[in-house]
Amino acid sequence: MELSFGLFPILSAFTLLVLMILKLLKQSKPKLPPGPWKLPVIGSVLHLAGSLPHHRLRDLADKHGALMHLQLGEHSVFVASSPETVKQVMKTHDAIFANRPFHLSAYVMGYNGAGIMFSSYGEYWRQLRKICTLELLSSKQVESFGWVREEEVSKFINSISEGSFINLGKSLSSLIYGITARAAFGKKM
Predict the structure, then answer these.
(1) Do residues 44 and 73 touch, judged by C-beta distance below 8 A?
(2) What residues are paired with 69 via a beta bridge?
């Protein structure tokens, strides 16, 4: 009998420790929408394998609901597959989904995410957007580069009027690049 009374406090402490660990593990998981089962490294990619992924997504939406969670490798993806759900995500809960994912390359090249492209949604991002809208993209600034657009478009039209076959996609990309580079840096790079 003495042996069982000595084990009782140890077993009680062990049981309490296990319950506390389980509670902590349960709390640390984010509340995600339902989704298909996942494998450790590739996630839910196998559910999309096949010739028509949009049909697979439709079938998954029928099974798991209009808003579902997919794990594509290390990235979490939320799929909204009905107009009502998309409206709710994009209008009602837009601030929740406004942040950009973390990418190491963006933080290395973008001053730790301090630029407008990679900064998280918040007061700092709103200030950057306001500066861009008022200073860089104001009608006065846009009009000041009108001569650049006119020169680049006239070069584009001259290259088209030569009569030879052209790749329209490459030509339009070159036009846009030329306008952007000359407006930003003063010359084509």
Answers:
(1) no
(2) 78
* Residues 44-60 pLDDT 10s: 989 888 888 889 999 99
| Number of Cβ within a 10 Å radius of residue 55 | 10
Helix H or strand E encompassing 78: strand 75-80
Name the 3-class secondary structure at 67: strand
Record the pTM: 0.52
**121: which residues sit within 8 A by CB, 6+ positions away?**
95, 98, 99
Q: Which two tokens stand for residue 130?
A: 């306001």
Amino acid at site 182? R
* Token reading at 64: 């798991």
Q: What is the per-residue pLDDT across 71-114, written as a single tens digit (0 to 9) for each? A: 988 888 899 999 999 998 888 888 877 777 777 887 787 778 78
| Total residue length of the chain | 189
